[in-house]
Specification:
This protein has about 270 residues and is α/β, with parallel strands linked by helices. The chain has helices at about 30-40, 50-60, 85-95, 115-130, 150-160, 175-180, 200-205, 235-250, 250-265, 270, and strands spanning about 15-20, 40-45, 65-70, 100-105, 135-140, 165, 185-190, 215. It has one domain (about 10-270): Alpha-Beta Barrel (TIM Barrel), CATH 3.20.20. A five-stranded parallel beta sheet has the order 4-5-6-7-8. Strands 1-2-3 form a three-stranded parallel beta sheet. The protein is globular. The model has no long low-confidence stretch (mean pLDDT about 95).
Length: about 270
């Protein structure tokens, strides 16, 4: 494979999903953001999983150019009852300054939160996103060989017409990826796309039109090759974008240009922030 062109010769990128409020970034956050900018990652969406992380994301973004916060409840972090925590998310979102609602969604991989509670929370997040004209960031994870969560997300989104959003860190199969595109969603690919065992994700990427693709890190998790075994950070989205360009059979510059345009179309506030 030919050497990658220098970053300065390539269009900018957006890391559409990472967790800068995670404690592993506590000691060198400014350096992490600087390395991202040096890699051509000019905008970063830092994603919340509960009210405290939403407030932390907002504080992080307030003092750093190109960083944008979200607010939401991860399905694995839902308290019982969950409504009071969601009320805090609602208040934050209505106060302004957030570019998306989430992450939310369904996670049936663990049994920590019963599916009915997850579905109720997901529906509430979708309603809030529609009301505020914000995208919703959707997490999906299922048990090995099962697709219940993928199917339930599709059913809920089909009943929430008018909601725009992204299926983040897609790990399913091409059939589901196409279904989410048909529902108007973007599909985002993480470092899993680069893993030797990620062929199902690469097949899904081939099935998603380029104008519906996004790239992300989900940092500090899922570092792409060649960074496996290290803490992931937003700069590494460049490696995922390079691999996605290979999978899609397009020049890396075109992949960067289109996915960045897609991100700006979805997270509208990024363009003017």
């Amino acid at each position: 494979m030919a050497d990658a062109p220098p970053t300065s010769a390539l269009p900018p990128l957006v890391d559409t999903h990472c967790h800068l409020a995670w404690e592993s970034f506590g000691d060198d956050l400014d350096a992490v953001v600087r390395r991202a900018h040096d890699a051509g990652v000019t905008r970063i969406v830092t994603v919340a999983t509960d009210p405290a992380s939403a407030e932390a994301c907002a504080a992080i973004a307030a003092h750093r150019d190109g960083v944008h916060p979200t607010a939401g409840l991860h399905p694995n972090d839902l308290p019982h009852p969950w409504e009071a925590a969601f009320a805090r998310i609602e208040a934050l979102v209505r106060g302004g300054g957030f570019v998306a609602v989430g992450e939310t969604g369904l996670d049936y991989y663990r049994d920590a939160v019963e599916p009915a509670r997850q579905r109720a929370s997901f529906e509430a997040h979708c309603a809030l996103a529609r009301e505020r004209d914000l995208p919703v960031i959707v997490h999906i994870r299922d048990r090995e060989g099962r697709f219940d969560a993928y199917d339930d997300v599709a059913t809920i989104l089909a009943g929430q017409r008018g909601v725009r959003g992204v299926i983040h860190c897609f790990t399913g199969i091409a059939t589901h990826a196409r279904a989410y595109v048909d529902l108007g969603c973007f599909v985002s690919f993480s470092g899993i796309l680069t893993f030797p065992k990620g062929e199902n994700v690469r097949e899904a990427a081939r099935a998603v039109p380029l104008d519906r693709c996004l790239v992300e890190t989900d940092a500090p998790f899922l570092a792409p090759i060649p960074h496996r075994g290290k803490r992931c950070e937003p700069a590494h989205v460049a490696d995922t974008a390079r691999r996605l360009a290979e999978v899609k059979g397009v020049p890396e510059a075109d992949l960067r240009r289109v996915t960045t345009a897609n991100a700006l179309a979805l997270f509208g506030d990024l363009a003017s922030a």
